[in-house]
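Q: My labmate handed me this sequence with no annotations at all. I'd like to see what the chain might look like in three dimensions before we decide whether it's worth expressing. Could you predict it?
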Amino acid sequence: MLMKKVRIIPIEMRTKLPAYFYSALGMKAPLNGNHLQRKIMDLIDLYYFHFKMIFPPLNTPLLSYKHIQDLGLPVEIYPAVKRLASILGVNFSFDVLSTSIRGPLSFPEMRIICLIVIATKLSQPFDSLERIPENSSDPTILKIDWKAWFKIMHENQEIGFKKGEELNVRDTDVWNMDDVKIDQYLDWFQKSWLDERKPKISELILDHFPLQSQRSYEEEIGETERRFDKQILIQEASILQTPSSSIEYDKSKNLRPGAMYIRYRALGDLTEEAKNFYGHAASKVGVSTSFLVRAVFQMEIQIESWLTANKKKELEKLRSLNTEGDKSSAV
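A: Here is what I predict for the chain of 331 residues:
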């Protein structure tokens, strides 16, 4: 949330602050997600190296569920996220580094969103290839219609401001605002710039234009219900697939869920559906789409390394069994 941070400081302390602190705590531009993530990690490093304080790990189940819900994904994504995290040995703690160089996966919330993206790509790929689930209880029995998903997730988003746009409003923009945008802007101004304990507005103005109370708990609950409604609409628009137990399944011709997995190295490699999903997922953690693409690709390389190592172990095991068999037959 964009806010004039100096407002949070108690008035008794605020009156004694030097002018340069006011400037430092003032809001000059919308927050940049990548920059904010790095500054948080720098702060965590500072607390560790100077005070030996360690921050607790993220509340992974709750945060994962929130992101899954915000992205309109089925709840079956969560077990896949847990399984992938277990395979890769991913933790969700704030890693303390002795160097200032941090990769995209240095941030714990990025690891969560990357796992969600990969789990989604495995079970709900963005291409049109037919992948046949094993039975009717398979989590992939319902396939998301990504065009319908995009339409449902972005409906009514053109109404009002996007987060952070209020800061860029100029006086000339007022003439082009509708009622919704004006209300949003005034609410944002009250929340960000006015001190309700001491608003510094004349009583005469307040009599004609009283300050309204900010968003209530009931309104926040309403937003949660709207997210649930979107999930229901997405499920209703999903495609019910026929499991292999109900048809003649040919292993040589038919694909299983997870087969023909596609990795995207750069933003330009994304298909339209993938770009829509990546962009929406990136917005949930406040980073750019290209940053998320790089992070997901790095984690996919880790999964590929794990698969290669597993195959190597299986081959070595087979070789040892064959060697033992040859020795016993020779005897």
